[in-house]
Amino acid sequence: MSEEYRELGVSIPIGPFHPALKEPIGFRIWVEGEKIVKADIRFGHNYRGIELIGARRNWIQILYLAERICGICSWSHQFPLAQAIESLMDVRPPDRANYIRVVVGELERIHSHMLWLGVLGHEIGFDTLLHLTWGVREKVMDALELISGNRVNYAMATIGGVRRDITEAKRDILLRKLDDLLKGVETLRDIVLTHKLVLLRTEGVGRYDRELALRLCLQGPMARMCGIRKDVRQDEGVAAYGDLGFRAIVARDVVGKDGCDAYSATAVRVAETIQSINLVRDALMEMPPGPISAFPKPIVALTRASKAEGEAIGRYEAPRGEVIHYVRAAKSDKPKRWKVRAPSLINVYSTKWVFPGHQIADAVVIAAQPDPCIACTERALIVDLDRGERRVVDHAYLTELSRRKSKEVMGDV
Amino acid sequence: MGLQRFIKRSPWVFHLNTGGCNACDIEILAALTPRYDAERFGVKLVGSPRHADILVVSGPMTRKDVEKAKRIYEQMPSPKAVVAVGVCTMGGSVFHDSPFVTAPISDHIPVDVYIPGCPPRPEAILHGILEALEKLEVE
């Protein structure tokens, strides 16, 4: 611990294996009594050297490696990489492929946002919400399984298009499922945005402001909760989003003001879930007939890609924000350089600025607010500056604190 | 069939992600929620390894996590079982040639049940946990 930190007093570590976090990441917070005065974040527990091993694989193989950067947003990494390789080769995917890309991407967003909503419910001690959202979420997983054959890693994108078609029969089943899903999500929206416990535990918690959001380059729903209408789907019109007339949602469209807090983040994500359901329906209805890939076989795409030279980027709005994939090619079947920029690093790191001033019990809500995607969990270390003692607390303790606070604020209700 | 033989007590589970991509983790969570409802077998996710009977590990075990994972295993009271979820835990899967992962995880902690799949379905995860339960009963 450095001198500067020693002066600060009591510190509490959260993570790297912590019940509030599904993946390993370490937060350390310094406290004075119940008040957080400083926070720091440690990364690296999940480092797998993906860009390095990617440079040893060919253009088709790295698509499946990209998918496994993150299991929750597997499409959101595979698609921009495919896009980057396509722009390297100067190939345009057929229209039908673009519509199928929208369908898969939006279904993934629905499942990711609902997952987050469940986790938020769990963190504030509202387990009924966790089970309700995950019950509804299974319908999305069924839809993804129907399209791709797998629940999580769909392997749908390929160079020049998609790998599986959505037939008429599948489309009808999907449309029926979407109606069911919409009903479920609307019920959830009415519960979440008006429930007293959710309001008490999220309003004013993790408050950013517009200037801070711009300065820290917040991404995705974190930027949109601060009123910044920023979305790659809207700004770039990737895939068929341009045709579908997509417009990003910000917090003031849903709750009337840009609260920049955990409540606004919740509102934006819930509204985006409903928007995504409508986008999937529109894409399914307006899908033009035709081929689903610009190349008859992956091997043809690989041969063409092996002749490409230069550099290219692919962008996509993942559920957590903008994903950028950069590739450089030098007439080889392998990339010369492959660089991934994921939004979570920016969003998770920004929490360092909003921890101070909050209670320890709110730490799990702030840590969960950006939907951290580190594939890990951590424990927290609490350092009490007044008493000069260090205690290491685990996620269970913090969750317990958070739940106790929920009980207190709710009174006897 | 005699599943009931094994379900005499309620196994508490601690979930440890050692560098996985999250896919297995969301399927483990899905196994606990209403559709698959692991709680009908008494399976409960706990926040501390000191309360747990079964350690559910996912991910290819990154170098930074090895010591922490060993410590978590040692903190669990006996009898205990380890369930490894996903092919990453067996040989690293797509990360097999990365210098930063140290799969298989049985090099570091003893594994009782492996569940293959990328990721395995929630049904398979439930089945694996019940297999581990059988092992606990035999002991």
Features:
A: 413 residues; alpha+beta; 2 domains; five-stranded mixed beta sheet; 50% helix; 14% strand; B: 139 residues; alpha/beta; 5 strands
Radius of gyration of chain A equals 22 Å
Low-confidence stretches of chain B: none
Our measurement of the CA-to-CA distance between the termini of chain B, rounded to an integer number of angstroms, reads 21 Å
Low-confidence stretches of chain A: 375-388
In the CATH hierarchy, the third-tier topology of the largest domain in chain A is known as: Cytochrome-c3 Hydrogenase, chain B
Q: Overall 3D geometry of chain B?
A: globular
Bin the helical content of chain A: 40-55%
Question: What is the β-strand count of chain A?
Answer: 10
CATH class of the largest domain in chain A: Mainly Alpha
CATH-defined topology of chain B? Rossmann fold
Question: Which structural category do the helix and sheet elements of chain B fall into?
Answer: alpha/beta
Please give the radius of gyration of chain B in angstroms: 14 Å
Q: Mean pLDDT across all residues of chain B, rounded? A: 85
Fraction of residues in H or I helices of chain B? 25-40%
State the total count of DSSP E strands of chain B: 5
pLDDT averaged over residues of chain A: 84
The helix tally of chain B amounts to: 5
* Derived structural class of chain A: alpha+beta
CATH class identity of chain B? Alpha Beta
